[in-house]
Amino acid sequence: MTSAMTTAMVKAEGVHKSFGHVQVLKGIDLEVKSGEVFCLIGPSGSGKSTFLRCINHLEKINAGRLYVDGELVGYRQKGDKLYELKDSEVALKRRDIGMVFQRFNLFPHMTALENVIEAPVQVKGVSKGQARERAMQLLDRVGLADKAGSYPSQLSGGQQQRVAIARALAMDPKLMLFDEPTSALDPELVGDVLDVMRDLAESGMTMVVVTHEMGFAREVGDSLVFMDGGVVVESGTPREVLTNPQHERTQSFLSKVL
Amino acid sequence: MTDIKKTDRPAETPPAGPEAIRAVPVRHYGRYVTAVVALTILGLLIWAFAGGAINWGAIPDYFFNDRILKGVRETLLLTFLSMLIGIVGGVVLAVMRLSKNPVTSSIAWFYIWFFRGTPVLVQLFVWFNLGFVFEYINLGPVYKDEWSDFMTPFLTALLGLGLNEAAYMAEICRAGLLAVDEGQTEASHALGMSHSKTLRRIVIPQAMRVIVPPTGNEVINMLKTTSLVAAVQYYELLRFAQDIGTTSGATVEMLFLAAAWYLILTSVLSVGQYYIERYYARGSSRQLPPTPWQRVRTHLTSLSSRKGVAA
Protein backbone atom coordinates (compact mmCIF):
# COMPACT_ATOMS: atom_id res chain seq x y z
CA MET A 1 0.00 0.00 0.00
CA THR A 2 1.45 3.33 -1.01
CA SER A 3 1.24 5.73 1.90
CA ALA A 4 0.70 8.76 -0.32
CA MET A 5 -2.45 7.26 -1.82
CA THR A 6 -4.10 6.07 1.37
CA THR A 7 -7.00 8.23 2.47
CA ALA A 8 -9.04 7.96 5.65
CA MET A 9 -12.14 5.82 5.15
CA VAL A 10 -13.31 6.52 8.69
CA LYS A 11 -12.18 9.49 10.72
CA ALA A 12 -13.34 10.17 14.27
CA GLU A 13 -12.60 13.42 16.07
CA GLY A 14 -13.61 13.60 19.72
CA VAL A 15 -16.68 11.41 19.28
CA HIS A 16 -18.96 11.40 22.33
CA LYS A 17 -22.05 9.30 22.87
CA SER A 18 -24.24 8.94 25.91
CA PHE A 19 -27.41 7.01 26.64
CA GLY A 20 -29.32 9.14 29.11
CA HIS A 21 -26.83 9.92 31.85
CA VAL A 22 -24.46 7.11 30.96
CA GLN A 23 -21.50 8.31 28.92
CA VAL A 24 -20.46 5.45 26.65
CA LEU A 25 -17.98 7.21 24.37
CA LYS A 26 -15.85 9.94 25.92
CA GLY A 27 -13.98 11.40 23.01
CA ILE A 28 -12.79 8.89 20.45
CA ASP A 29 -10.12 9.96 17.97
CA LEU A 30 -9.03 7.50 15.36
CA GLU A 31 -8.51 6.99 11.68
CA VAL A 32 -9.22 3.95 9.52
CA LYS A 33 -7.28 4.02 6.26
CA SER A 34 -8.76 2.85 3.02
CA GLY A 35 -8.12 -0.84 2.42
CA GLU A 36 -6.99 -1.69 5.92
CA VAL A 37 -8.34 -4.11 8.47
CA PHE A 38 -8.95 -2.16 11.65
CA CYS A 39 -9.56 -4.16 14.83
CA LEU A 40 -11.27 -2.85 17.94
CA ILE A 41 -10.73 -4.82 21.13
CA GLY A 42 -11.61 -4.22 24.73
CA PRO A 43 -13.73 -5.45 27.63
CA SER A 44 -17.52 -5.50 27.32
CA GLY A 45 -19.04 -2.12 28.04
CA SER A 46 -15.97 -0.33 26.74
CA GLY A 47 -18.04 1.26 23.97
CA LYS A 48 -16.48 -0.50 20.99
CA SER A 49 -19.78 -1.82 19.61
CA THR A 50 -21.44 1.55 20.18
CA PHE A 51 -18.67 3.25 18.23
CA LEU A 52 -19.13 0.79 15.38
CA ARG A 53 -22.86 1.51 15.31
CA CYS A 54 -22.14 5.25 15.17
CA ILE A 55 -20.20 4.76 11.93
CA ASN A 56 -23.38 3.87 9.99
CA HIS A 57 -25.54 6.14 12.11
CA LEU A 58 -27.48 3.40 13.89
CA GLU A 59 -26.58 5.53 16.91
CA LYS A 60 -26.48 9.31 16.87
CA ILE A 61 -23.34 10.89 18.29
CA ASN A 62 -23.69 13.70 20.82
CA ALA A 63 -20.46 15.57 20.23
CA GLY A 64 -17.42 15.48 17.98
CA ARG A 65 -17.20 14.75 14.30
CA LEU A 66 -17.35 11.44 12.46
CA TYR A 67 -16.49 11.15 8.78
CA VAL A 68 -16.88 8.23 6.40
CA ASP A 69 -15.03 8.59 3.11
CA GLY A 70 -14.60 12.29 3.78
CA GLU A 71 -18.29 12.95 4.41
CA LEU A 72 -19.88 13.77 7.74
CA VAL A 73 -22.02 10.94 9.18
CA GLY A 74 -25.65 11.88 9.79
CA TYR A 75 -25.23 15.63 9.19
CA ARG A 76 -24.57 18.17 6.51
CA GLN A 77 -22.45 21.19 7.22
CA LYS A 78 -23.34 24.57 5.76
CA GLY A 79 -21.13 27.37 7.03
CA ASP A 80 -20.67 26.55 10.68
CA LYS A 81 -24.16 25.15 11.08
CA LEU A 82 -25.00 21.44 11.11
CA TYR A 83 -28.17 20.14 9.53
CA GLU A 84 -29.52 16.70 10.35
CA LEU A 85 -29.81 14.45 7.32
CA LYS A 86 -33.21 13.17 6.29
CA ASP A 87 -33.89 9.46 6.80
CA SER A 88 -33.68 8.90 3.05
CA GLU A 89 -30.27 10.59 2.90
CA VAL A 90 -29.00 8.47 5.79
CA ALA A 91 -30.31 5.37 4.02
CA LEU A 92 -28.48 6.41 0.86
CA LYS A 93 -25.17 6.55 2.75
CA ARG A 94 -25.77 3.25 4.48
CA ARG A 95 -25.90 1.50 1.12
CA ASP A 96 -22.13 1.79 0.92
CA ILE A 97 -21.49 0.46 4.43
CA GLY A 98 -22.02 -3.22 5.06
CA MET A 99 -22.68 -4.42 8.58
CA VAL A 100 -22.41 -7.87 10.13
CA PHE A 101 -24.05 -8.37 13.51
CA GLN A 102 -23.17 -10.53 16.47
CA ARG A 103 -26.57 -12.23 16.31
CA PHE A 104 -26.58 -12.47 12.47
CA ASN A 105 -30.02 -10.79 12.14
CA LEU A 106 -30.85 -12.69 8.97
CA PHE A 107 -34.44 -12.24 7.84
CA PRO A 108 -36.01 -15.51 9.08
CA HIS A 109 -38.93 -15.47 6.64
CA MET A 110 -36.62 -15.51 3.64
CA THR A 111 -34.30 -18.17 2.27
CA ALA A 112 -30.54 -17.55 2.21
CA LEU A 113 -30.77 -16.46 -1.43
CA GLU A 114 -33.73 -14.17 -0.77
CA ASN A 115 -31.82 -12.61 2.13
CA VAL A 116 -28.92 -11.79 -0.17
CA ILE A 117 -30.96 -10.37 -3.07
CA GLU A 118 -33.38 -8.38 -0.88
CA ALA A 119 -31.39 -5.15 -0.59
CA PRO A 120 -30.00 -5.00 -4.15
CA VAL A 121 -33.51 -5.52 -5.55
CA GLN A 122 -35.41 -3.32 -3.10
CA VAL A 123 -32.85 -0.56 -2.59
CA LYS A 124 -30.78 -0.40 -5.75
CA GLY A 125 -33.47 -1.61 -8.12
CA VAL A 126 -31.29 -4.35 -9.60
CA SER A 127 -33.31 -6.86 -11.64
CA LYS A 128 -34.13 -10.08 -9.84
CA GLY A 129 -32.29 -12.22 -12.35
CA GLN A 130 -29.13 -10.17 -12.10
CA ALA A 131 -29.31 -10.02 -8.31
CA ARG A 132 -29.79 -13.77 -8.12
CA GLU A 133 -26.78 -14.42 -10.31
CA ARG A 134 -24.60 -12.14 -8.17
CA ALA A 135 -26.04 -13.63 -4.97
CA MET A 136 -25.12 -17.13 -6.11
CA GLN A 137 -21.54 -15.98 -6.72
CA LEU A 138 -21.42 -14.48 -3.24
CA LEU A 139 -22.92 -17.55 -1.60
CA ASP A 140 -20.39 -19.62 -3.47
CA ARG A 141 -17.64 -17.33 -2.20
CA VAL A 142 -18.69 -17.94 1.41
CA GLY A 143 -19.00 -21.66 0.65
CA LEU A 144 -22.78 -21.94 0.87
CA ALA A 145 -23.98 -22.19 -2.72
CA ASP A 146 -25.76 -25.44 -1.86
CA LYS A 147 -27.72 -23.75 0.95
CA ALA A 148 -29.28 -21.04 -1.21
CA GLY A 149 -32.78 -22.43 -0.72
CA SER A 150 -32.50 -22.97 3.05
CA TYR A 151 -34.19 -20.79 5.64
CA PRO A 152 -31.96 -19.35 8.39
CA SER A 153 -33.51 -21.67 10.98
CA GLN A 154 -32.24 -24.61 8.93
CA LEU A 155 -28.65 -23.32 9.01
CA SER A 156 -26.00 -23.52 11.73
CA GLY A 157 -24.80 -20.32 13.38
CA GLY A 158 -21.63 -20.25 11.33
CA GLN A 159 -23.57 -20.76 8.11
CA GLN A 160 -26.00 -18.00 9.07
CA GLN A 161 -23.15 -15.60 9.72
CA ARG A 162 -21.59 -16.39 6.38
CA VAL A 163 -24.93 -15.73 4.65
CA ALA A 164 -25.07 -12.44 6.58
CA ILE A 165 -21.64 -11.52 5.19
CA ALA A 166 -22.79 -12.37 1.68
CA ARG A 167 -25.90 -10.26 2.25
CA ALA A 168 -23.78 -7.25 3.22
CA LEU A 169 -21.41 -7.77 0.28
CA ALA A 170 -24.31 -7.87 -2.17
CA MET A 171 -24.59 -4.09 -1.86
CA ASP A 172 -20.95 -3.70 -2.99
CA PRO A 173 -19.97 -1.69 0.09
CA LYS A 174 -16.76 0.30 0.32
CA LEU A 175 -16.58 -0.36 4.04
CA MET A 176 -17.55 -3.39 6.12
CA LEU A 177 -18.36 -3.24 9.82
CA PHE A 178 -18.18 -6.41 11.90
CA ASP A 179 -19.75 -6.36 15.36
CA GLU A 180 -18.29 -9.35 17.22
CA PRO A 181 -19.14 -11.62 14.29
CA THR A 182 -17.98 -14.82 15.97
CA SER A 183 -19.06 -14.25 19.58
CA ALA A 184 -22.38 -16.08 19.25
CA LEU A 185 -20.85 -19.10 17.53
CA ASP A 186 -19.81 -22.55 18.70
CA PRO A 187 -15.99 -22.61 18.88
CA GLU A 188 -15.94 -25.20 16.13
CA LEU A 189 -17.75 -22.89 13.68
CA VAL A 190 -15.65 -19.77 14.31
CA GLY A 191 -12.95 -20.83 11.86
CA ASP A 192 -15.26 -20.90 8.82
CA VAL A 193 -16.40 -17.34 9.44
CA LEU A 194 -12.87 -16.09 10.07
CA ASP A 195 -11.74 -17.74 6.83
CA VAL A 196 -14.36 -15.79 4.91
CA MET A 197 -13.27 -12.56 6.62
CA ARG A 198 -9.62 -13.27 5.90
CA ASP A 199 -10.47 -13.84 2.26
CA LEU A 200 -12.37 -10.56 2.23
CA ALA A 201 -9.42 -8.72 3.79
CA GLU A 202 -7.08 -10.11 1.15
CA SER A 203 -9.36 -8.74 -1.57
CA GLY A 204 -8.62 -5.25 -0.24
CA MET A 205 -11.89 -4.49 1.55
CA THR A 206 -11.76 -1.83 4.26
CA MET A 207 -12.95 -3.53 7.43
CA VAL A 208 -13.61 -2.35 10.96
CA VAL A 209 -13.82 -5.39 13.20
CA VAL A 210 -14.92 -5.48 16.82
CA THR A 211 -13.60 -8.81 17.99
CA HIS A 212 -12.36 -11.00 20.79
CA GLU A 213 -10.41 -13.16 18.35
CA MET A 214 -6.87 -12.02 19.14
CA GLY A 215 -5.43 -14.58 16.72
CA PHE A 216 -7.43 -13.10 13.87
CA ALA A 217 -6.51 -9.56 14.90
CA ARG A 218 -2.80 -10.36 14.96
CA GLU A 219 -2.81 -12.29 11.71
CA VAL A 220 -5.16 -10.24 9.53
CA GLY A 221 -5.36 -6.83 11.22
CA ASP A 222 -3.37 -3.84 9.98
CA SER A 223 -4.21 -1.60 12.96
CA LEU A 224 -5.53 -2.32 16.38
CA VAL A 225 -7.13 -0.20 19.04
CA PHE A 226 -7.72 -1.16 22.64
CA MET A 227 -10.69 0.64 24.15
CA ASP A 228 -11.79 0.83 27.76
CA GLY A 229 -14.30 3.04 29.55
CA GLY A 230 -15.26 4.90 26.40
CA VAL A 231 -11.76 6.03 25.42
CA VAL A 232 -8.96 4.69 23.25
CA VAL A 233 -6.35 3.43 25.67
CA GLU A 234 -3.76 2.19 23.23
CA SER A 235 -3.38 1.88 19.49
CA GLY A 236 -0.83 0.66 17.00
CA THR A 237 -0.17 -2.36 14.85
CA PRO A 238 -1.68 -5.58 16.27
CA ARG A 239 1.77 -7.03 16.85
CA GLU A 240 2.89 -4.01 18.87
CA VAL A 241 -0.19 -3.79 21.03
CA LEU A 242 -0.75 -7.49 21.57
CA THR A 243 2.81 -8.55 22.24
CA ASN A 244 4.17 -5.43 23.85
CA PRO A 245 1.36 -3.49 25.49
CA GLN A 246 2.52 -0.22 27.03
CA HIS A 247 -0.50 0.61 29.14
CA GLU A 248 -1.23 -1.18 32.39
CA ARG A 249 -4.94 -1.59 31.58
CA THR A 250 -4.08 -3.20 28.23
CA GLN A 251 -1.64 -5.55 29.94
CA SER A 252 -4.18 -6.76 32.49
CA PHE A 253 -6.87 -7.22 29.79
CA LEU A 254 -4.57 -9.16 27.49
CA SER A 255 -3.28 -11.31 30.33
CA LYS A 256 -6.85 -12.52 30.83
CA VAL A 257 -7.84 -13.16 27.23
CA LEU A 258 -4.65 -14.47 25.64
CA MET B 1 -47.41 -39.53 16.26
CA THR B 2 -46.42 -42.74 17.96
CA ASP B 3 -48.05 -44.73 15.19
CA ILE B 4 -45.72 -43.20 12.65
CA LYS B 5 -42.67 -44.04 14.68
CA LYS B 6 -43.76 -47.64 15.13
CA THR B 7 -44.15 -48.19 11.41
CA ASP B 8 -40.92 -46.41 10.57
CA ARG B 9 -39.05 -49.31 12.09
CA PRO B 10 -39.33 -52.64 10.30
CA ALA B 11 -41.54 -54.53 12.75
CA GLU B 12 -40.68 -58.07 11.64
CA THR B 13 -37.01 -57.77 12.62
CA PRO B 14 -36.85 -56.65 16.22
CA PRO B 15 -33.48 -55.12 17.13
CA ALA B 16 -31.14 -57.62 18.71
CA GLY B 17 -30.76 -55.47 21.82
CA PRO B 18 -31.59 -56.33 25.40
CA GLU B 19 -35.00 -57.86 26.12
CA ALA B 20 -37.78 -55.23 26.24
CA ILE B 21 -39.44 -54.62 29.61
CA ARG B 22 -42.90 -56.17 30.02
CA ALA B 23 -44.39 -54.67 33.15
CA VAL B 24 -47.99 -54.51 34.38
CA PRO B 25 -49.11 -50.91 33.69
CA VAL B 26 -50.48 -48.77 36.53
CA ARG B 27 -54.30 -48.91 36.68
CA HIS B 28 -55.84 -45.45 36.78
CA TYR B 29 -59.11 -46.22 38.58
CA GLY B 30 -59.85 -42.49 39.02
CA ARG B 31 -60.03 -42.13 35.25
CA TYR B 32 -62.61 -44.91 34.96
CA VAL B 33 -64.77 -43.24 37.57
CA THR B 34 -64.64 -39.77 35.99
CA ALA B 35 -65.35 -41.25 32.55
CA VAL B 36 -68.45 -43.01 33.88
CA VAL B 37 -69.68 -39.88 35.63
CA ALA B 38 -69.15 -37.71 32.54
CA LEU B 39 -70.89 -40.21 30.27
CA THR B 40 -73.85 -40.47 32.67
CA ILE B 41 -74.35 -36.71 32.73
CA LEU B 42 -74.08 -36.55 28.95
CA GLY B 43 -76.63 -39.36 28.61
CA LEU B 44 -79.06 -37.61 30.96
CA LEU B 45 -78.71 -34.40 28.97
CA ILE B 46 -79.43 -36.13 25.66
CA TRP B 47 -82.34 -37.98 27.25
CA ALA B 48 -83.80 -34.72 28.57
CA PHE B 49 -83.63 -33.02 25.20
CA ALA B 50 -84.99 -36.08 23.40
CA GLY B 51 -87.97 -36.01 25.78
CA GLY B 52 -88.61 -32.26 25.30
CA ALA B 53 -91.37 -31.10 23.01
CA ILE B 54 -89.00 -30.30 20.17
CA ASN B 55 -90.07 -30.79 16.62
CA TRP B 56 -86.70 -31.96 15.30
CA GLY B 57 -88.15 -32.47 11.85
CA ALA B 58 -88.57 -28.71 11.42
CA ILE B 59 -84.81 -28.20 11.33
CA PRO B 60 -84.04 -30.16 8.14
CA ASP B 61 -87.25 -28.76 6.60
CA TYR B 62 -86.00 -25.21 6.89
CA PHE B 63 -82.26 -25.84 6.73
CA PHE B 64 -81.92 -24.74 3.10
CA ASN B 65 -84.89 -22.40 3.15
CA ASP B 66 -84.41 -19.41 0.84
CA ARG B 67 -84.60 -16.90 3.65
CA ILE B 68 -82.13 -18.88 5.78
CA LEU B 69 -79.66 -19.06 2.88
CA LYS B 70 -80.10 -15.33 2.29
CA GLY B 71 -79.40 -14.82 6.00
CA VAL B 72 -76.23 -16.91 5.74
CA ARG B 73 -75.09 -14.80 2.78
CA GLU B 74 -75.81 -11.58 4.63
CA THR B 75 -73.99 -12.82 7.73
CA LEU B 76 -70.93 -13.78 5.68
CA LEU B 77 -70.97 -10.50 3.76
CA LEU B 78 -71.23 -8.47 6.94
CA THR B 79 -68.47 -10.51 8.59
CA PHE B 80 -66.19 -10.06 5.61
CA LEU B 81 -66.74 -6.33 5.18
CA SER B 82 -66.58 -5.53 8.90
CA MET B 83 -63.33 -7.47 9.24
CA LEU B 84 -61.95 -5.66 6.20
CA ILE B 85 -62.68 -2.31 7.85
CA GLY B 86 -61.34 -3.68 11.12
CA ILE B 87 -58.05 -4.98 9.71
CA VAL B 88 -57.28 -1.96 7.53
CA GLY B 89 -58.27 0.40 10.33
CA GLY B 90 -56.36 -1.68 12.85
CA VAL B 91 -53.10 -1.60 10.86
CA VAL B 92 -53.42 2.17 10.39
CA LEU B 93 -54.16 2.70 14.08
CA ALA B 94 -51.31 0.43 15.17
CA VAL B 95 -48.81 2.29 13.00
CA MET B 96 -50.21 5.61 14.28
CA ARG B 97 -49.94 4.37 17.85
CA LEU B 98 -46.29 3.35 17.39
CA SER B 99 -45.34 6.48 15.48
CA LYS B 100 -43.00 9.02 17.03
CA ASN B 101 -45.49 11.80 16.30
CA PRO B 102 -47.23 12.48 19.65
CA VAL B 103 -50.39 13.82 17.97
CA THR B 104 -51.11 10.75 15.87
CA SER B 105 -50.22 8.35 18.64
CA SER B 106 -52.53 10.15 21.10
CA ILE B 107 -55.39 10.13 18.61
CA ALA B 108 -54.92 6.42 18.06
CA TRP B 109 -54.77 5.87 21.80
CA PHE B 110 -58.02 7.80 22.30
CA TYR B 111 -59.79 5.91 19.50
CA ILE B 112 -58.81 2.57 20.96
CA TRP B 113 -59.76 3.70 24.46
CA PHE B 114 -63.20 4.79 23.33
CA PHE B 115 -64.18 1.95 21.00
CA ARG B 116 -62.77 -0.79 23.20
CA GLY B 117 -64.27 0.71 26.31
CA THR B 118 -67.90 0.82 25.21
CA PRO B 119 -70.12 -2.17 24.37
CA VAL B 120 -70.54 -2.83 20.68
CA LEU B 121 -74.32 -3.03 21.10
CA VAL B 122 -74.34 0.50 22.49
CA GLN B 123 -72.20 1.66 19.57
CA LEU B 124 -74.64 0.05 17.14
CA PHE B 125 -77.56 1.86 18.77
CA VAL B 126 -75.67 5.15 18.66
CA TRP B 127 -74.97 4.82 14.93
CA PHE B 128 -78.58 3.84 14.39
CA ASN B 129 -79.94 6.85 16.26
CA LEU B 130 -77.51 9.50 15.01
CA GLY B 131 -80.39 10.66 12.80
CA PHE B 132 -81.77 12.45 15.83
CA VAL B 133 -78.63 14.59 15.97
CA PHE B 134 -77.94 15.13 12.27
CA GLU B 135 -80.67 15.91 9.83
CA TYR B 136 -78.46 15.84 6.77
CA ILE B 137 -75.19 14.35 5.80
CA ASN B 138 -73.23 16.94 3.89
CA LEU B 139 -69.83 16.14 2.42
CA GLY B 140 -69.64 19.38 0.46
CA PRO B 141 -69.92 18.89 -3.30
CA VAL B 142 -69.27 15.14 -3.04
CA TYR B 143 -72.39 13.92 -1.34
CA LYS B 144 -75.46 15.35 0.36
CA ASP B 145 -78.49 13.43 1.54
CA GLU B 146 -80.91 13.11 4.39
CA TRP B 147 -79.34 11.23 7.25
CA SER B 148 -82.04 8.59 7.45
CA ASP B 149 -81.59 7.77 3.76
CA PHE B 150 -77.84 7.62 4.12
CA MET B 151 -77.61 5.58 7.32
CA THR B 152 -79.27 2.38 6.18
CA PRO B 153 -79.39 -0.61 8.54
CA PHE B 154 -76.60 -2.15 6.48
CA LEU B 155 -74.29 0.85 6.89
CA THR B 156 -75.18 1.09 10.58
CA ALA B 157 -74.23 -2.52 11.07
CA LEU B 158 -71.06 -2.18 9.01
CA LEU B 159 -69.81 0.95 10.76
CA GLY B 160 -70.78 -0.28 14.20
CA LEU B 161 -69.01 -3.59 13.85
CA GLY B 162 -66.08 -2.44 11.67
CA LEU B 163 -65.02 0.57 13.69
CA ASN B 164 -65.29 -1.36 16.93
CA GLU B 165 -63.23 -4.16 15.44
CA ALA B 166 -60.54 -1.72 14.29
CA ALA B 167 -59.80 -0.91 17.93
CA TYR B 168 -59.22 -4.58 18.76
CA MET B 169 -57.24 -5.23 15.60
CA ALA B 170 -55.05 -2.21 16.38
CA GLU B 171 -53.95 -3.82 19.64
CA ILE B 172 -53.35 -7.17 17.94
CA CYS B 173 -51.28 -5.54 15.19
CA ARG B 174 -49.33 -3.47 17.68
CA ALA B 175 -48.43 -6.58 19.66
CA GLY B 176 -47.35 -8.25 16.42
CA LEU B 177 -45.15 -5.35 15.32
CA LEU B 178 -43.53 -5.13 18.76
CA ALA B 179 -42.85 -8.87 18.76
CA VAL B 180 -40.39 -8.57 15.86
CA ASP B 181 -36.80 -8.41 17.07
CA GLU B 182 -35.26 -4.95 16.86
CA GLY B 183 -32.21 -6.47 15.22
CA GLN B 184 -34.35 -7.07 12.14
CA THR B 185 -35.04 -3.37 11.75
CA GLU B 186 -31.38 -2.57 12.36
CA ALA B 187 -30.19 -5.09 9.80
CA SER B 188 -32.65 -3.72 7.28
CA HIS B 189 -31.65 -0.11 7.94
CA ALA B 190 -27.97 -1.06 7.76
CA LEU B 191 -28.62 -2.37 4.25
CA GLY B 192 -29.95 1.05 3.27
CA MET B 193 -33.64 0.18 3.30
CA SER B 194 -36.08 2.97 4.10
CA HIS B 195 -38.51 2.97 7.03
CA SER B 196 -41.51 2.06 4.90
CA LYS B 197 -39.67 -0.68 3.00
CA THR B 198 -38.38 -2.09 6.29
CA LEU B 199 -41.92 -2.15 7.63
CA ARG B 200 -43.40 -3.66 4.49
CA ARG B 201 -40.74 -6.19 3.54
CA ILE B 202 -39.17 -7.16 6.87
CA VAL B 203 -41.29 -6.32 9.91
CA ILE B 204 -44.89 -6.91 8.81
CA PRO B 205 -44.27 -10.36 7.24
CA GLN B 206 -42.74 -11.48 10.54
CA ALA B 207 -45.41 -9.78 12.62
CA MET B 208 -48.03 -11.72 10.66
CA ARG B 209 -47.05 -14.91 12.45
CA VAL B 210 -48.10 -13.28 15.71
CA ILE B 211 -51.05 -11.40 14.22
CA VAL B 212 -52.77 -14.20 12.30
CA PRO B 213 -53.89 -16.54 15.12
CA PRO B 214 -55.72 -13.87 17.18
CA THR B 215 -57.12 -12.39 13.95
CA GLY B 216 -58.61 -15.79 13.16
CA ASN B 217 -60.29 -15.66 16.53
CA GLU B 218 -61.53 -12.18 15.75
CA VAL B 219 -63.08 -13.37 12.46
CA ILE B 220 -64.88 -16.18 14.24
CA ASN B 221 -65.98 -13.75 16.95
CA MET B 222 -67.17 -11.29 14.33
CA LEU B 223 -69.22 -13.97 12.60
CA LYS B 224 -71.06 -14.54 15.85
CA THR B 225 -71.25 -10.87 16.80
CA THR B 226 -73.07 -10.09 13.54
CA SER B 227 -76.11 -11.62 15.21
CA LEU B 228 -76.31 -8.42 17.31
CA VAL B 229 -77.20 -6.30 14.31
CA ALA B 230 -80.68 -7.78 14.38
CA ALA B 231 -81.16 -5.03 16.98
CA VAL B 232 -80.68 -2.30 14.37
CA GLN B 233 -83.15 -3.79 11.90
CA TYR B 234 -80.59 -5.51 9.72
CA TYR B 235 -81.70 -8.92 8.48
CA GLU B 236 -79.11 -11.66 8.76
CA LEU B 237 -79.09 -15.32 9.71
CA LEU B 238 -80.42 -15.01 13.26
CA ARG B 239 -83.09 -12.44 12.36
CA PHE B 240 -84.43 -14.57 9.49
CA ALA B 241 -84.39 -17.68 11.67
CA GLN B 242 -86.32 -15.83 14.38
CA ASP B 243 -88.85 -14.58 11.85
CA ILE B 244 -89.46 -18.06 10.53
CA GLY B 245 -89.67 -19.26 14.12
CA THR B 246 -92.47 -16.84 15.03
CA THR B 247 -94.51 -17.46 11.88
CA SER B 248 -94.14 -21.23 11.90
CA GLY B 249 -94.33 -21.66 15.65
CA ALA B 250 -91.02 -23.57 15.75
CA THR B 251 -89.16 -20.89 17.76
CA VAL B 252 -86.60 -23.05 19.56
CA GLU B 253 -86.08 -25.29 16.54
CA MET B 254 -85.15 -22.31 14.40
CA LEU B 255 -82.65 -21.16 17.04
CA PHE B 256 -81.06 -24.61 16.91
CA LEU B 257 -80.98 -24.29 13.15
CA ALA B 258 -79.23 -20.93 13.35
CA ALA B 259 -76.79 -22.37 15.88
CA ALA B 260 -76.03 -25.25 13.51
CA TRP B 261 -75.34 -22.83 10.67
CA TYR B 262 -73.06 -20.72 12.84
CA LEU B 263 -71.17 -23.87 13.85
CA ILE B 264 -70.73 -24.90 10.22
CA LEU B 265 -69.46 -21.46 9.24
CA THR B 266 -67.05 -21.15 12.16
CA SER B 267 -65.69 -24.64 11.45
CA VAL B 268 -64.99 -23.73 7.83
CA LEU B 269 -63.26 -20.54 8.95
CA SER B 270 -61.08 -22.47 11.41
CA VAL B 271 -59.77 -24.64 8.59
CA GLY B 272 -58.92 -21.54 6.58
CA GLN B 273 -57.13 -20.10 9.58
CA TYR B 274 -55.01 -23.24 9.89
CA TYR B 275 -53.73 -22.89 6.34
CA ILE B 276 -52.97 -19.17 6.68
CA GLU B 277 -51.04 -19.82 9.90
CA ARG B 278 -49.12 -22.56 8.17
CA TYR B 279 -48.16 -20.18 5.37
CA TYR B 280 -46.76 -17.56 7.74
CA ALA B 281 -44.91 -20.18 9.80
CA ARG B 282 -42.46 -20.75 6.94
CA GLY B 283 -38.92 -20.11 8.06
CA SER B 284 -39.84 -20.03 11.74
CA SER B 285 -39.95 -23.78 12.22
CA ARG B 286 -37.63 -26.22 10.57
CA GLN B 287 -40.46 -28.19 9.05
CA LEU B 288 -43.98 -27.02 8.32
CA PRO B 289 -46.69 -28.91 10.21
CA PRO B 290 -48.54 -31.34 7.94
CA THR B 291 -51.88 -30.26 6.45
CA PRO B 292 -54.89 -32.18 7.80
CA TRP B 293 -55.06 -34.06 4.51
CA GLN B 294 -51.41 -35.08 4.77
CA ARG B 295 -52.06 -36.20 8.34
CA VAL B 296 -55.01 -38.34 7.24
CA ARG B 297 -52.85 -39.92 4.57
CA THR B 298 -50.02 -40.83 6.97
CA HIS B 299 -52.57 -42.34 9.33
CA LEU B 300 -54.09 -44.37 6.50
CA THR B 301 -50.72 -45.66 5.34
CA SER B 302 -49.70 -46.50 8.89
CA LEU B 303 -52.99 -48.41 9.34
CA SER B 304 -52.53 -50.41 6.16
CA SER B 305 -48.93 -51.25 6.95
CA ARG B 306 -49.95 -52.37 10.42
CA LYS B 307 -52.50 -54.72 8.86
CA GLY B 308 -49.78 -56.01 6.59
CA VAL B 309 -47.67 -56.90 9.60
CA ALA B 310 -50.52 -58.67 11.32
CA ALA B 311 -51.41 -60.76 8.27
UniProtKB/TrEMBL annotation, chain B:
NCBIfam families: HEQRo_perm_3TM (TIGR01726). Coiled coil: none annotated. The HisPMQJ complex is composed of two ATP-binding proteins (HisP), two transmembrane proteins (HisM and HisQ) and a solute-binding protein (HisJ). The HisPMQ-ArgT complex is composed of two ATP-binding proteins (HisP), two transmembrane proteins (HisM and HisQ) and a solute-binding protein (ArgT). Keywords: Cell membrane, Membrane, Transmembrane, Transmembrane helix, Transport. Belongs to the binding-protein-dependent transport system permease family. Residues 72-273 form the ABC transmembrane type-1 domain. The chain crosses the membrane at residues 32-56, 76-96, 108-130, 254-276. It is found in: Cell membrane. SUPFAM superfamilies: MetI-like. This is Histidine/lysine/arginine/ornithine transport system permease protein HisM. PROSITE patterns: ABC_TM1. It is a multi-pass membrane protein. The keyword Transmembrane applies. It comes from the Bacteria.
